[in-house]
Amino acid sequence: xxxxxxxxxxxxEPLFLQIAARxxxxxxxxxxxxxxxxxxxxxxxxxxxxARGTVDAAYALLAGEGAIITRGSAGTVVSGxxxxxxxxxxxxxxxxxxxxxRPKPLPFQMGLPALDAxxxxxWSNLIVQAARGLQPADMANTDPxxxxxxxxxxxxxxxxARGxxxxxxxxxxxxxxxxALALVRHVLLRHGDPVWLEDPGYINTRQAxxxxxxxxxxxxxxxxxxxxxxxxxxxxxAKLAVVxxxxxxxxxxxxxxxxxxxxxxxxxxxGSWVLEDDYDSEFRYTGRPLPSLKSLDRGQRVLYAGTFSKxxxxxxxxxxxxxxxxxxxxxxxxxxxxxxxLPVLEQLVTALFLEKGHFARHIRRMRMLYAxxxxxxxxxxxxAIGTHASVEMAAGGxxxxxxxxxxxxxxxxxxxxQAAGLAPSALSSLSIAHDAGQGLLLSFANIxxxxxxxxxxxxxxxxxxx
Length: 466
What we know:
By secondary structure, the protein is α/β, with parallel strands linked by helices. The protein contains 15 helices and 15 strands. The longest helix is centred in the C-terminal third of the chain and has 28 residues, at 358-385.
């Protein structure tokens, strides 16, 4: 039976889901009767001008629902149960586009990459490819340290992009940075152990360490990054130092080379460890790319953590941790004791994304896009806020820092912004013991250049409501 199907290739919904929905509706409304033979995947793919794999995926989905039956060389037919499928009205407990809707990211929201520029169609095709290639063994319990294909891909990427030479045995796939930090805490720290932490710094790191019983030692950050000498004076026998050397969170400064060498020398002499959180090093807009701290580590004292959440999309919840060879067995044992592993399909798709070169190309495109959006928002902010504040542009990262006068209250401004549908973050809320001043952190990643002036105007209205 011929199928008169039209597809909207401009929609975000994958084409195979559109095909399945059209066929499902035709069956439900009686336009296709039970026992009717459907076009082959090859014929329908040619009719719709799509890849055959797209139709195969749609047919596989329908077959899994019981709507159609595939009979090999005999073709594909509509289920002959004789019962018409009834499309029920959506209820709060059934899927519907309205029920599945999620709030859009708010302007200036930190930690979000450019979701509007993510290659969703490509990612959808890789999902289909990975799903079709699943073997029974892949559907059993996954390895808690991560899928071998993804660990190999990560090791290869780090060797080229970050100068880190490691074997796949040193790589563990984690649930983002927090998953990596949980493993580090489990293996290396005991209750009451002192840990150096940048001040100001990433609040989730501080809270995770405190919940785990570590004694956080806040260390001031200046124009050269973490003040190692101050840290040594405060806690020379610290068990661990957690740093963001390429792009300090939240000030944006980079840890200078003398400080890097000083930090590595301390770790070697004290028998301590350094956790490098390299959360957005891919995005640098001025000067040469900075080497990772791990690439300078001759004493094997640095553990390196990266994440796909900030460079691909947050809901992926995949990251990785590279540990020194002497710690590999301990970390693998900890992973097997503390987690049952991460979803296989997401790992397979991410591995394909890296192996086929899509990841490197995506990073290059985003670096150019972010440079444009960064410049547009900074220019618009400088024009809009006038003398109320100043805009600081770090050499890399995904946010701008708007410095406010000492008399300002950035936390109060954030509450006012949230009421207006904006989502900046307050600089002062990220400090522990050292005053970092008043300021607002504004992400530019999700603000198109053509929207920069309007967004800057909204920010200016928050700063000067009168």
